[in-house]
Amino acid sequence: MSNILALLDILVGSVTEANWQSLVIESESPVLVEFWAPWCGPCRMIHPIVDQLAKEYTGKLKCYKVNTDESPETATRYGIRSIPTVMIFKNGEKKDTIIGAVPKSTLTTSIEKLL
């Protein structure tokens, strides 16, 4: 089981203010970013969905998580007022924002529009 969790950590990396530019803005692939915090209950509900999407879209979409407590400047820059918030970026531009613990189908629909 720990091997599976380790693999998911590789598929869904953490983004910080230090690596935001290189991992998200300069990415050649579309990027899904989940803004979350450890104390957020709904965030725990969406984590497994983001993990599944990272696995299903390997090679087509990069998935990252941003801890808003650790990267408040990034959260503020993108107007994060509620978590979980998922944003999808393409060519360095924010293309879609999904707020709240939504079903996987909602995220899949947004992703498919950009691929």
TrEMBL record:
Protein name, entry field: Uncharacterized protein
Species annotation: Bauhinia variegata (Purple orchid tree)
